[in-house]
Specification:
By secondary structure, this protein is α/β, with parallel strands linked by helices. The chain has one domain. About 25% of the residues lie in helices and about 20% in strands. The protein contains 3 helices and 5 strands. A 3-stranded parallel beta sheet has the order 1-2-3, with helices on both faces. It has a two-stranded antiparallel sheet with strand order 4-5. The radius of gyration is 15 Å and the shape is globular. The protein starts with 8 loop residues before the first helix and ends in a 15-residue tail after the last helix.
Length: about 130
C-alpha cells in the first residue's frame, strides 16, 4: 500500500513495526526503515539524477544495523524522472520517477526467497533501464 509519513515517526511506529517490506525513494524518509522489525527489508529507490547525492549513505547505515536487509533499485535512464523547479537550478529532479512493475516483482521475489533469514541475505542492486 502507498503510505505517507506526514504524521511523523511516532504516529507511524505501529505500522512500521508490522511492515515486512518498505520501498521508497532515496531521501530523509528512508530513516523510517530503522523502525522495522528484525528480518524486514527496505528497498531504496535511487533516482536517475544524482547531483551531489551520497547514494551509498543508507547502504552503509543498514550494514551497521544488519537486522534490516537493505536493497537498492537504480537506473541511469533520465526519462524515468520528473523535472521540478526552474531549468536553471542545477538540473534538479524530484523523487517522482518510474520503477517498472517487472522490477518491483523481481525485488519482491528476491525478498521472499531470503525469507527474513540473515544467512540468505546478500545486498543487491536491482538495476533497470
Amino acid at each position: 500500500m502507498a503510505h505517507s509519513f506526514d504524521e511523523g515517526l511516532k504516529a507511524n511506529l505501529p505500522l512500521l513495526r508490522r511492515t515486512d517490506v518498505l520501498i521508497g525513494p532515496h531521501g530523509a524518509d528512508m530513516t523510517n526503515a530503522f523502525a522495522l522489525h528484525a528480518g524486514a527489508s527496505v528497498v531504496e529507490l535511487l533516482p536517475p539524477i544524482r547531483n551531489g547525492c551520497p547514494c551509498t549513505m543508507y547502504q552503509r547505515m543498514f550494514a551497521a544495523e544488519p537486522q534490516v536487509f537493505h536493497y537498492t533499485a537504480s537506473t541511469t535512464n533520465k526519462s524515468h524522472a520528473s523535472r521540478t523547479g526552474p531549468a536553471n537550478i542545477h538540473g534538479t529532479y524530484s523523487s517522482d520517477f518510474i520503477v517498472p512493475v517487472s522490477v518491483t516483482e523481481r525485488i519482491l521475489e528476491h525478498v521472499v526467497t531470503v525469507g527474513g533469514r540473515p544467512e540468505n541475505f546478500r545486498t543487491a542492486d536491482f538495476r533497470f533501464a
